[in-house]
Design brief:
single chain; 2 domains; rod-shaped
Length: 147
């Protein structure tokens, strides 16, 4: 190993020997023991690593709030937003209108279901309807003309 390669390892992996590539770790340690220039390179790199370890980024409060506001809310909000992405879009208007008609039909159907379940009311309704059809003098929408 030469000094240039040792410098490349320090630039890429830092001053901690555990981070150096395993294949070149032993050769770098031998070069470090025999060359004083490598020792000074290692000290300089070690001071940079210490500085980076102690560095704490300062985030302005406004930026912190902006970041926190962009985080997703609860899992329920995420699922609802996924199912109904944008109610204002033109695509959802016909879907909502159709759904409202469907719901109204179901409500109307269930409100009259009680009358249909009463057996006497069903029999009376059929009898009245058959009687009224018998009094009608039209066949399939055409009037019967007596000659």
């Amino acid at each position: 190993m030469n000094i240039e390669r040792f410098q490349q390892i320090l630039d890429a992996y830092g001053s901690r020997e555990d981070n150096w590539p395993r294949e070149e770790r032993q050769a770098a340690q031998l070069l470090l023991q025999s060359n004083t220039e490598c020792v000074s390179l290692l000290r300089r790199c070690h001071s940079v690593d210490d500085y980076l370890d102690e560095y704490v980024p300062r985030v302005p409060p406004a930026l912190r709030q902006k970041i926190l506001q962009r985080l997703p809310g609860s899992i329920i909000d995420t699922i609802v937003n996924w199912l109904i992405p944008d109610v204002r879009s033109d695509f959802w208007r016909p879907v909502i209108a159709g759904s409202l008609l469907l719901v109204m039909g179901v409500m109307l159907g269930t409100s009259t279901l009680g009358d249909l379940l009463d057996s006497t009311a069903v029999d009376d309704n059929w009898e009245e309807e058959i009687y009224l059809l018998a009094l009608d003098d039209t066949v399939n929408g055409m009037e019967i003309i007596d000659e």
